Amino acid sequence: MDKLTEMLKESSNTIIFTGAGMSTESGLPDFRSKDRGLWEKFNPSELANVHALVHNTEEFTEFYQFRLSEINKYEAHKGHHILADWEKSGRIKGIITQNVDAFHSDAGNENVMELHGSFRVFYCHTCKKEYARDVYLKGTSTCDCGGTIRPGIVLFGENLPEDTFRRAEIEAKNADLFIVLGSSLSVSPANMFPLIAKEHGSKLVIVNREPTEYDRFADVVIQDKSIKEVLIEIDQQL
Ligand code: APR
User: Fold this and answer.
1) What is the DSSP pairing of strand 14-18 with strand 203-207?
2) How is the chain split into domains, by residue range?
3) CA of 19 relative to ligand 1 center, distance in Å
4) 52-73: per-residue pLDDT in tens?
């Protein structure tokens, strides 16, 4: 922990990279934690893709209305707010996130790159007409044009938003400290950013309850404390 605190103090360009583990302490399940992950209950290959949206619309909609109702129940926790304070004070440059809960921007971070989109936007898959989140939550899933309304998140098999991806690539290349918070780093192309940073001379820190494939490239790995504990403890030392 002291080493991470020192690295943060010495860094002039820190980028944070978050996964679902950042939001479990808000109450949201992550995807792959042993016996607690979302994909233990639902099968992503059956649901989180465009094929299911088109050919299994009812179950697809049920699943995403469930996920939206879950996200609506919870909110950003102290750790998200610490990251927002750190951006305001210049301690970190920005956040690259795989999360779609928008908790980082809710907490006040501005330079947030949402690689997988977010549940902030809903639109018709056919005509692209936008719909309010509440409309979807209340059960409307068919557009006036007859198309299916879907969340503005990246489904498996879809491309990541080009401009967001480019911004994240530039930030990762310029970082001198790249901190991963709560990701199994098992989904590409998002999982390439820690290595891009490392290859461009950045220090790499991974804070994750379970081991990842990238731990061997990391300068510091923290597994014995939760993300919220780590952020609170470091914030007190800065
Ligand atoms: N503190 C530290 N680590 C935690 C905590 C916590 N409080 N809670 C969970 N973790 C760790 C888990 O051990 C797990 O390894 O966070 C990691 C979360 O990994 P995943 O569940 O795989 O989530 P993520 O890496 O974000 O998944 C990437 O997969 O399904 C797709 O699009 C979805 O964005 C998601 C992507």
Assistant:
1) unpaired
2) 2-27+76-116+159-237, 37-73+124-153
3) 5
4) 999 999 999 989 998 999 899 9
